[in-house]
Amino acid sequence: MGLGEIVNGLLTSRERLIWEASLARNARDYMKRADLAREGERPVALRIILAGWAQKYKQMPDGRRQILGLVLPGELCDLDLFTVARTDHSIAAVRRLSVAEISRPDAQRLFEQCPNLAPALCWAAIIGAAVQREWTINIGQRNALERVAQLLCEIYVRQRDVPSGGGGSCDFLLTQGQMAEAMGLTQVHVNRVVQQLRLRCAVEIRNMRLEIPDFAQLAALASFNATYLHLGEPAMLVERARMLFLPDLDGRDRPIDGALSSAI
Amino acid sequence: MGLGEIVNGLLTSRERLIWEASLARNARDYMKRADLAREGERPVALRIILAGWAQKYKQMPDGRRQILGLVLPGELCDLDLFTVARTDHSIAAVRRLSVAEISRPDAQRLFEQCPNLAPALCWAAIIGAAVQREWTINIGQRNALERVAQLLCEIYVRQRDVPSGGGGSCDFLLTQGQMAEAMGLTQVHVNRVVQQLRLRCAVEIRNMRLEIPDFAQLAALASFNATYLHLGEPAMLVERARMLFLPDLDGRDRPIDGALSSAI
DNA sequence: CGCGACGTTGACCTACCTCAATTGGCGTGG
DNA sequence: CCACGCCAATTGAGGTAGGTCAACGTCGCG
């Protein structure tokens, strides 16, 4: 279960039904590298990744490009639609990609029908900010080896929701060139670092799969600490977001999963 | 008028009264470099900077430190209190600092009394995320000269709310060492770059003041583009956040300033 | 007057970049 | 089934932006 799918756990079963139907109805595909949204445009839709990976990126006038973050299946691209006049970054497909695009009026209607939805999406936005902070320190302070190791750790954990101690494998859709754009490095140098990791940790990236035989070792190499992903906290966040935004709805629908809601 | 003060413009006069009284009642001072919050703690208060600057930072186990962003007077440190079990970054005073610290129950009460407050604070959080993105590309893609120039531009503009074409001066409380921690550089190298900027743009940093005789020139050097600060958009954001979180409150109190609300 | 914090300078070093060529895998069309 | 072309991965040689270390200057403050 990925981060994104947790959102589903925060909806009542009725809400989940409405939500998923809406996703299916608005599905749309993009080819590899195609832009879903470009910097400077007015946001036109709320986007949720159904399958494939998306990349947020920013480009400088002279062409230098920085990947700011990845959006994995089930996750929300951003809440810009409801916050900002013009998007300040672009979003593109990493490879072939399937997305649900919900127009503003539709989204509006959804939020009215599903009172737990807005706080749940807000949670996603807040985690996104935390991840962004981690990327900043990653690029600013770590050396190339640590950076790449950290990236691999993050992607691995985000797809499993558990910072497992052992090993395993997961999808990995980035090329070395894209990894370079993400970490502020060169494609050539990323290549050399990946080879290092192969030697030192037996990490393998092949066929769109990432294999990590010994996660703990890789995490140590990167000084990886998963707390910034705030795994296992979404229920609490939603509870608090509700306090923040819906102080008067105490009696209304709650998610059916009481265990989740009671987690600190 | 700084970013933070705009929040006031989004409240009704009654709300503003309550809000400001609450700030004054909960004021607290910190010495230079003191931590307001440390990574891993449970958030205990909603913090708003009254005077001085705060820095968000993260530290790695071996001591390397990255400043993630600055919090200027009138701005909200973060909404972590209402979102997250454990803070994922620390906050410290840049120099002597005065902060309003509002406990969770008090904040709760405030939000009930001031329905425009939560969306206004949420706006601050979202802009914070946009600034974080810009810092990521700044550190990942720009060279040292561009980075420092960009930092100066951002600080200058955030204190004036207008990307003025001419020149001027503003407060500047960072040491060169802190600038280095913020931009992923060395103190020594920052020093050399600052001297470059003195030569090429006549930029001066002295006595806690930053003087920029020709802002346009500095901005060009940094490829600085202020759109990521989303100046002039808060009214729209609050309107949309209201749509998102309070769909049923259409008849309630609105900010008195109708002109602001009608801005695209 | 002396101390501590910050700014400045110089000499040397290295992690990472640049450029350019080669290899390997894979889908496509003949 | 093979040949071609494309894209990603790989390799090598040489260059440079920025780091490291260590000193010294300077200013404000107790």
Could you characterize the architecture of this molecule?
- Two copies of one chain form a homodimer.
- With 264 residues, chain A is α+β, with helices and mostly antiparallel strands.
- Chain A has two domains: 3-135 and 233-261, Jelly Rolls; 142-227, Arc Repressor Mutant, subunit A (Orthogonal Bundle), CATH 1.10.10.
- Chain A has ten helices and ten strands.
- In chain A, the strands form three sheets. The first copy, chain A, has a four-stranded antiparallel beta sheet with strand order 2-6-4-5. Chain A has a three-stranded antiparallel beta sheet with strand order 1-7-3.
- The two termini of chain A are 20 Å apart.
- The model of chain A is unreliable at 247-264 (pLDDT under 50).
- At the A-B interface, strand 5, helix 3, helix 4 and helix 9 of A face strand 5, helix 3, helix 4 and helix 9 of B.
Q: Please identify which CATH superfamily of the largest domain in chain A we are dealing with.
A: Jelly Rolls
Write the H/E string of chain A, N to C: HHEEEEEEEHHHEHHEEHHH
Strand content of chain A: 15-25%
Q: Give the overall form of chain A.
A: globular
Distance between the termini of chain A: 20 Å
Main sheet: strands, sense, barrel of chain A: 4 strands, antiparallel
Our Rg estimate of chain A from Cα atoms comes to 19 Å
CATH architecture group name of the largest domain in chain A: Sandwich
- The oligomeric state is homodimer
For this structure, what is the CATH class of the largest domain in chain A? Mainly Beta
- The count of β-strands of chain A is 10
Domain count of chain A, please report it: 2
CATH topology of the largest domain in chain A: Jelly Rolls
User: Most extensive interface: pair and counts?
Assistant: A-B, 57 and 58 residues
Helix content percent band of chain A: 40-55%
Q: What's the average pLDDT of chain A?
A: 85
Helical run tally of chain A: 10
- Main structural class of chain A: alpha+beta
Poorly predicted regions of chain A: 247-264
